[in-house]
Amino acid sequence: MSKRTFVSLAFCLAGIFALYGQEENQNNYGVDEANTKFSLQSGVLGGETNYTYLSLKDHEDVSGVPLGGIGVGNINFAPSGKFTRIGMNNIHTPIKRSEHSFFSLWTRKGNEKEAVRLVRDNHVLYGMKGVEHTQYKGLFPTAELSYADNNLKVTPVIRAYSGLVPHNVKDSSLPVVWFEVDLIAQEDMEAALAFSWEDFIGLFNDPKSLEGFDNGQLLSEGRANINNGENWPLREKAKTYVEPYQMGSLKGLIQYAADSLQPRKLTFQNYVNQVVIAVEEEKNVSYLPAYRSNSEAWEQFRNNGEFTSSLTKNVLTEQSQTSSASVLAVKTQLKAGQKKTIRFMLAWYAPELQIDAAALPIGSYWPCGADYNKYYHNYFNNMNSMVSYAVSNRARIARQTTEWQIPVLESSLPDWYKFKLINSGYVIYTNMVLTKGGDVMVNEGAMGGFAGTMDQRLSSHPFYQKFFTQLDRSEMDIFADAMDPEGYILHFIGHYYVGMGTVGGRVPTEKGWMLDNASGWIIQLVKDYEQTGDTEYLKAHLTGLKRAMKFLYSRMPQGSTIPVGPTTYDDFTHPPLYSYYAGVWLTTLKAYEAIGKAIGDESIVKQAQQQFATSQKEALEKLWNGRFFAYGCEPDGSKRLDNVLFTGQLAGQFLSRYCGWGDVYPMDIVKASMISQCKISLSKSPDYYANKVWDINLNRGIDNRGSQCWPFYLESYTALAGMQAGFYEDAMDIMKHIQLVHLRKGWTWTQNLWNPSDITYMTAPVTWFSTDVLAGAGVNIPRKELRLAPVVADDKVISIPLFYPNFWGVVTADPQKKSITFKITKKYGKERISFNKVISEPAGLSTSEKREIEIKEFVVEEGKTLDLSPYWDRIIDNRLEAPVLQEADKHDFRYVTIK
User: Fold this and answer.
1) Residue limits of the Glycosyl-hydrolase family 116 N-terminal domain (predicted)?
2) What is the reported pTM?
């Protein structure tokens, strides 16, 4: 056993014994934080609605498409041409923007010459003005920026992209960005393109000292405040150098620190010490190795489109000074009508950290969990090897990155939806931590660094689970391994500025439970099993599943069969018997029943079914008030809050139906609840951006200031639950306006849960539930079942892409021909997948009225098509409701009496 292993193991065991017997954590984390930290930003909701989503004109530039990779940092290329939210070093608190990072264009025709920065602004910097107009097509992780209407002699188009290849973690975790710039001239002329990049090396958060730090658990004794890296200062700027760089067909500059960077406290930040800016296969390349905020440095470029600086090693930035920047310029001759494409690369690299456990002081790193290194360290031990691989594989990675976008873009869905769906996946770059060992946790966002947040994960996980099942399972496995001895699933499994767990290790965030942490973990595990057919995965977690269920049963108070305790809605006090968790509990029982069926344990099946019947009866009797589910009540049913309407009341209904486990409430009750939400709160809120908690007597939301809406939950638990119930138009309207609230302010790629503001929050990928809901789709691979019941709202042909971990497909329905097909467009793995049954659960109909259609076995193979046209009338039978939101006052409430 090595000294490092021994020391770490000894410390972990000591910590475990020290915590044995501690009282249950009473920390109210989330309550005070959410209610005081995040104030509503300036401006009101409402405004422009008619955007050309795939060509945003002169759009706000707070954020842009994140470019980079999973777990390696990212930069935003914004709609103005600026670089914003530079998170190469720190994805949690990125640098807001850079004035020294930009593209510039020089042209000369005869004696007429012009140099402009390809940035939309009104400033003159470095002797060059910006442009007045831009058009931006941002589809994560790609962006296209064009510059029409600027009276430029050469029309440039910048196409930026990085790698995100489904189920290929290696190619999706490269810190490499490509910029392909097309130059098109109307006349013969000279042109030059320059790419300037600021020196960000060494800019990361670091505490001033380790005083007060130790290796203790964060959720006790005030350690969370000490470890809040949002409050740490930026480390003193490291001394950096710049010199020419050449690798194969690439030529450019490398910015670097002479030594590896040594923080006082190791975190999951990226300790980048090398950055390359280079151009591919160009001969007339010149350089400005280092400059500051002075126009003289650019004079040569403004005059001649090139620099004449010496190509030797230069000091880039002196230690502790403000950063300098480096410029790479390419000069070329253009023929009239000719298109010239210049391809730039931006890459960064952090060396692998070597932890000397004997030498490092206590508190400088977390010794009981995952490593701090990057996934690319498995393959590349230096910048050159990584760059060489990226160049050789660029075209393939780019092609495979757009493969998952193409089915969405070719669908019949509206542009606003295509834009929203594709871009909601950006969190995999901006929030996910991925280590060399393959361990994963996702930053919640603006919570001091807490990460691996199970309650939010219940809504945020679909994008990861569909496209990177390996990474999704990694986080789930760490949660399982860190399960508390009492049997509950933790709230967090790590912290961006401290450390995280690994299977066989220990997390720095022990204690602290919420009911839906356990339920969410169970639901996601069973759904994964049914969508992948991986029985071994389910069996590996069977003991933990039973322990988690035992814990939930233990939280039932006397006189109730529904567990009581804290939940994800931790920012506003709710009654013990809670409408949100009552439904989630019913879904948990449905999941447990599915487990019993999967392993052939009739005792589990019987127990789950009996408990479901009892708990459902109690939920309806105690919480249903005739129009909607009351906010909550005491366990005995007293003190029911009928005057408070809550947008999370259908959470369990949505989750259960989505997973294919049926309705947890009668459909007439679900519809009545949806109408009440639309009439009482949503229709009275600008952009339908309603408070979670609405007081009917006061006729307004009563959420704490700064935490008004929780839009991602509104999307899943109200909009998508409504779509399942037949409220198609209302559901799409809610989803569209949630996006508009962020889009208008330039926050498309930095959306916040609590209110519209500049915070990148983990739950944005919730939209990836919606393709399945629109198609009424799902799979149970072990049972060879395909669910399909697409929403057909008119007589137009619809095509909806579907994505599952092992295969993709497109469902196409033509109402005029009454034809419906399902084409397999992608297949992963060698496992045989087939269907012999199609189940239709049309929107607006109870799942008790589902139609089961026996079909000839259909084997899932790429390119094959399943023709279901003979069953049109059994599959397409939507019972869509008239929209409520736009004319809510003209709709009556629906009243349903419990029999």
Assistant:
1) 64-396
2) 0.95
